[in-house]
């Protein structure tokens, strides 16, 4: 079976979705953006041996790829619309491709995003790029640049779990590790859960937003830089899971601050909207935590029990710099 | 210099373009599709050692990546709008990135497409994916599926040159090779010229279209399959360059039929529009050649001097099957 036939079999089924005039199978997909909506787009890549371990199950890769990419749409308060894929593989393994495409289709369906195009090529290692396309009412996309002094800093979910999940894959488990906790952290690593519904519900209340892919410190730093402001972060307020505390009590704080790849949202919200935002999150059953304040003084202060924690906090996730990618 | 700073320096300058509300530097770009226009998108990948030789100059890679990707927009009769990039590299080499991004910026500017986003990651070999976004008036995108019996089959430019250019890089040059001919074929390999202006000028006259990336036989085959028709191709009519004839007289026919990566257009045009289309092309100074006819009988017949050429023609470019990728 050649490339064309394989791709057709794996990816060309059930390719329908709102605004899809013409999906996979032509030189381009033809898409329709509804009046009054802007298009938001983002591209993300996963590389074998860098972002995932060789031998990772294709279904887990598909879920991680789509979840991480769609999280960028959540960070703009956008509604997912369409996704395209560039898949580079050492060989055209039918079993792998079928498992990957089945999980991809399932996860895309759950997240309301339609696969509309792709390119499959051969290469020495697996490299997966996904471009996501979302829609947002004109002028309502969240940017990083809108934070103002006095805004509260909110984060969704819990932080550091994905880094903990990775640790369970890289190192022998702690002797006291509970299997459910291990599984929970691994799921957080493999299956990012974009905070779409919450983002859409809070769309009008948020000054600035980013998704936490490089670690809270690094990503909050991007908001501060883009907005020309600073922040005070209360380290004791950071939301962490029982699972992470159970398995890695020594690393909880570092990983919550800079573990990376949690794909939670970090929001800057006017103080007057804080309780309304918290209520909305509670109604949706999503944890949303106030972890600090935007300040007029630039720079990022991390406080613990009222004291500034100085210096040696781990840096953000940097694909060309960090040692532990 | 870390990833963020490097990317900023290389890719974040002069990122403006029509419809770009917010370009590089946020979780997503924010884009505006004008009323009455549809969005067309396509993603393409180049892999080191598969689509280009290790050590290829970064400027040549940038030109090839952008040209090949934008060619898919020409094949839809679309106007280029925006491009995003996923760049995987063994290391963050500043010299490489600066040369790549400078050539990229130059070529994007020439083709009228704005860089609006990207992702840069580390990996064992260079893998480059580009997603292009174009605009086309509602309902006017060219598809592969509109060919009808009696349509003339037209191709732009000359065929087989890119394959010839690759040969000059892979094998010792023929003893009689003229340097200008070598250079001309290499340019055709490294620097695809999307037929944007011609496509936009012929937009209303064309029944079906594809760009020739896999070779004429393979790509015309896609039109036939999508349209449920067949074709007769006159091999003596295929447009070939003097340079290709000078360097590789024995391979001209095979490479014109199945060399791949020419990024010319193959069009199915109503016979009544033929002379008007040829006139338009002549006025634009672009070679456009009538090479055959769409037939009601399915299947692709290749004729030479009135006789059907049987059997052993080379197959189309297939990244997972061919031996010479």
UniProtKB/TrEMBL annotation, chains A, B:
NCBIfam families referenced in this protein's UniProt entry, alphabetically: thiL (TIGR01379)
Membrane spanning stretches: none
Family (UniProt): Belongs to the thiamine-monophosphate kinase family.
Record EC number: 2.7.4.16
Molecular functions (GO terms): ATP binding; magnesium ion binding; thiamine-phosphate kinase activity
Record-annotated PurM-like N-terminal domain positions: 25-136
The protein, known as: Thiamine-monophosphate kinase
Highest rank taxon of the organism: Bacteria
Any one of the GO BP annotations: thiamine biosynthetic process
Residues annotated as binding Mg(2+) 4: 27, 42, 72
Binding locations of substrate: 51, 261, 317
Keyword Nucleotide-binding appears in the UniProt entry: yes
Residue numbers binding Mg(2+) 3: 27, 72, 211
Pathway recorded for this protein: Cofactor biosynthesis; thiamine diphosphate biosynthesis; thiamine diphosphate from thiamine phosphate: step 1/1
Species in which this protein is naturally found: Marinobacterium iners DSM 11526
Biological role stated in the UniProt entry: Catalyzes the ATP-dependent phosphorylation of thiamine-monophosphate (TMP) to form thiamine-pyrophosphate (TPP), the active form of vitamin B1.
Residues reported in the UniProt entry to bind ATP: 118-119, 144, 213
Residues reported to bind Mg(2+) 5: 214
InterPro entries in the record: PurM-like_C_dom, PurM-like_C_sf, PurM-like_N, PurM-like_N_sf, ThiL-like
Domain PurM-like C-terminal: 149-302
Binding positions for Mg(2+) 2 per the UniProt entry: 44, 72
EC class name: transferase
UniProt keyword terms in alphabetical order: ATP-binding, Kinase, Magnesium, Metal-binding, Nucleotide-binding, Thiamine biosynthesis, Transferase
Reaction equations catalysed: thiamine phosphate + ATP = thiamine diphosphate + ADP
Keyword NAD found: no
Name of a matching Pfam family: AIRS_C
Residues that coordinate or bind Mg(2+) 1: 44, 119
């Amino acid at each position: 079976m050649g490339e064309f036939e394989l791709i057709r079999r794996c990816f060309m089924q059930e390719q329908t979705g709102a605004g899809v005039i013409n999906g996979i199978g032509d030189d381009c997909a033809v898409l329709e953006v509804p009046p009054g909506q802007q298009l938001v787009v983002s591209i993300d890549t996963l590389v074998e041996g860098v972002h995932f371990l060789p031998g990772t199950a294709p279904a887990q890769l598909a879920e991680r790829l789509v979840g991480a990419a769609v999280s960028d749409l959540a960070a703009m308060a956008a509604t997912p619309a369409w996704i395209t894929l560039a898949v580079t593989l050492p060989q055209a393994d039918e079993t792998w491709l079928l498992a990957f495409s089945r999980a991809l289709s399932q996860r895309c369906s759950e997240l309301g995003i339609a696969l509309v195009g792709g390119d499959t090529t051969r290469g020495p290692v697996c490299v997966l790029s996904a471009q996501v396309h979302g829609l947002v009412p004109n002028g309502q996309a969240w940017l990083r640049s809108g934070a103002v002094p006095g805004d509260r800093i909110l984060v969704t979910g819990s932080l550091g779990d994905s880094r903990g999940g990775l640790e369970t894959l890289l190192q022998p488990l702690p002797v006291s590790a509970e299997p459910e906790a291990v599984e929970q952290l691994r799921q957080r690593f493999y299956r990012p859960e974009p905070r779409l519904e919450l983002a859409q519900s809070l769309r009008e209340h948020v000054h600035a937003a980013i998704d936490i892919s490089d670690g809270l410190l690094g990503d909050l730093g991007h908001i501060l830089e883009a907005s020309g402001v600073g922040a005070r972060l209360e380290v004791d307020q950071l939301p962490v899971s029982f699972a992470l505390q159970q398995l890695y009590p020594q690393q909880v704080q570092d990983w919550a601050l800079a573990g990376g790849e949690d794909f939670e949202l970090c929001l800057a919200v006017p103080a007057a909207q804080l309780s309304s935002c918290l209520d909305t999150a509670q109604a949706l059953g999503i944890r949303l935590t106030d972890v600090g304040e935007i300040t007029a003084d630039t720079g990022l202060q991390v406080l613990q029990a009222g004291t500034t924690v100085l210096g040696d906090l781990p840096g953000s996730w940097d694909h060309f710099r960090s040692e532990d990618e």
